[in-house]
Amino acid sequence: MIAKADVKNIYPLSPMQEGMLFHALHDAGGAYIEQLSYRIAGVIDLNLFRATWDELVRRHDVLRTIFVHKDVPRPLQIVLKQWRVDFSTVDLRELEPGAAELRINVIKEQDRSTPFNLARDPLTRVKVISLADDEAEVVWCHHHIILDGWSAGILQGELLEIYADLKQGRRHTLPEPAPFSGYITWIGKQDQGASRRFWQNYLKGYSNTAGIPSFTLRNEPHPPPDLSLEGGGINKRGNLVFRIDSRKSGAMAALAAENGVTQNVLIQAVWGVLLCRLNGVDEAVFAATVSGRPDELPGIEEMVGLFINAVPVRIILNRSEIFTELLTALQRDSLASSSHHWCSLADIQAESALKQALLDHILIFENFPLDERIAADERSGERGFTIAGSEIRENTNYPFELSIIPGKEIEFKMGFEPSIYSDDQIERVAWSLEHLIDSVLENRSAPLAGLSILSPREKDCILNVFNRPHGTEATETVADILERQVLEHPDSIALVF
User: Fold this and answer.
1) Which of 28-32, 48-52, 446-450, 459-463 has the highest mean pLDDT?
2) Does residue 269 contact residue 459 with C-beta atoms inside 8 Å?
3) Parallel, antiparallel, or unpaired for β 400-405 and 385-394?
């Protein structure tokens, strides 16, 4: 039980938090747990590091928030006056490097799979794993209901600043942050009816789910892959990672700039075309993440909380249209929907004919500056350590998700449920995506119908493997055969219907 004296404030949940709470309460595992880990090179003072986290908890209400849903008319988030982060340490300095790395992977997996009690637990936990006197791994898990990726980047930037100041024996000078409650108040002023009507009109007439085909023909001839999997490959956890080289990545950035759209919109357009081709349709709807941060709210860029949302993106293909025309239409739709990004996906789906069957996967464009914030080295000398690398892992409730990490070489990550999709099927999707990108860059003025998703090897496989002729080569056409039959049997019945 929480005593009234321990409570600072009580607020309703945002629509995104309500949807997440519903799914979290019906999930027995670690859904909606996000894990950030990174390697520290140098000496870290564990006492100062814990004190730094305590200061972050003091600064940000969301890190002292729990969620109550029982015995109340509507779920509430309760901000406590005081709270301490769940902080622990593990010492692996006696292990050989190979054994230590294996142990780290086990610790991370266990941490990701351990659920939070939303009504009782601190919803963030930190573990520092010592590997040597001058090397450690930091593992930070939090429930997604309190933080999104952009907010995680803000907190890690503050963490490094505060630690450096404490190490130098002085108090930090960071300004007090704008509280997440300001966003909750802003949502309460929005016209919910108008937003519901917008999404209802946006999805009107759409009646077929355009998902990732999950069938697998395991015994069919398989062309050798010509997709470069530089960033990894398929592993036991159902992940495929690939990059497109700097030349193509630069060409995509230039194409987006030339047409006045973001890279996010460009990739959404490519993905929409691919979905239509894979499903043999001219319309596709998929979920895509949006920042959810309203420009008109003061201090929103540095506010910490859950703002990110998933909304439907609808692609309508006119096969005579060229790709850049599709880009323009998609950018127009994106701008029109931006003022309605605060709506929960569950409410949006309720306005569609397909309801919960509207979507079966999500596209995530990771444009938050996390790596830049945690790898900042301006004060590494004062801290006594640098950040050697980072990894983000998150459990979602989608059987397939495509994450895009922009950069000099754009990285694509495909996460999938192995019980639904096979490795071969996801590889084929990856090949098709890369070759469609090639086709767009090479034929940007060609009609959409002319864009290819097949590589030369796949085309050869279809023409010369799947359709290899048997026996002697045919010398008659179907029309020739029909004409001969007519001449030989002019009075026979040709067709019965």
Assistant:
1) 48-52
2) no
3) unpaired
How far lies 202's CA from each of 60, 333, 334, in Å?
37, 9, 11
| Measured CA distances, 341 to 34, 203, 277, 289, 458 (Å) | 22, 15, 28, 9, 39
Q: How many CB atoms lie within 10 A of CB 409?
A: 16
Beta bridge partners of 300: none
pLDDT tens figures, 4-14: 889 999 999 99
Question: What per-residue confidence (pLDDT) applies to 5?
Answer: 87
Q: What is the pTM of this model?
A: 0.83
User: Residue 91: which H helix or E strand, with range?
Assistant: strand 86-91
Give 158-175 pLDDT, tens digit per residue: 999 999 999 999 999 999
Q: List, in sequence order, every residue forming a beta bridge with 68; answer none if it has no partner.
A: 76
For residue 38, give both structure tokens.
């990174």
CB within 8 Å of 330: residues ≥ 6 apart: 261, 265, 268, 269, 272, 313, 315
**Helices 323-337 & 263-279 angle (0-180, nearest 10):** 110
